[in-house]
Amino acid sequence: AAAWQATLTASGPLAQLQAELRLRSTGAAGTTTTPSRAAGAAPADATAAAAPSLQASATVLPFAAWPLGALQLATDALDLSALSPRLPATRLAGRATLQTRGLDRPAALQATLDNALPGAWDTGRLPLRQLQLQASGRPDQTDRLTLDRFELQLGDGAGPAGRISGQGSWQGDVLALRLQADGLLPARLHRSAAPITLGGPLALQLRGLDSLRGMAAATTLPGGAPRPPAPAAAGLLLALDGTLSGRWLADAGQPVQLRLVAEADARHLLVTQAEAQAGTARASLHGRADADGSG
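RESULT FIELD:
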């Protein structure tokens, strides 16, 4: 397993401390290794030799009603697959800044995340090249957050594969997103997808976020008996309404249009409207599907 080294420092007057945390991987044996190369050979990918790291610096106000003045976060060479084999391989570098002015005053977050190892999902990678995010909210309103702007630049190792941008909000147990897709190339995101390009508006709403709090509940019942595991998405309801238009990348660029209005939870799928059109061909369906209660 990889070893990590942490350093925590604090300086300044007690009423306004400048704190800094540095966390860095030192490799399996506690040392960082760098691949060697022969003289005259092409240099190795610099990101491949970089050790994962995390840095955080903050202004701490211990005697204030809201003790955090500002926070900066940075990470480099983060591989999600090192955290769990179920996660994709990545090489993430991110920067985030949080500015706060008090418990009852709006706080602003700006973040950028770059992935130097993008790839199709079915190859064990993440088809994301960059994420940009701006959000705001009040520290005393922990159930509200405004997503002022976000943008996902998608792609694989060969280049860009489209963009998804939008705005949204989280209030109580509801997350609502208004999205705009541009130049999506699904076959570059997953190799089994159709060779088409798509774009258009999407509205997404996720209800029941309060149910996720149960994931942090104790795993044992009174008396020491194990608590039966609850499905993480048991109380979640996802609703989608979108229209995407585009064309086939083959067949002389035949036009394509997809329309979907649907909602789903852990046991039910309701399709109010689903239509697909390619040239003069058209298909549509609507209906409901329920999961087997025994499964």
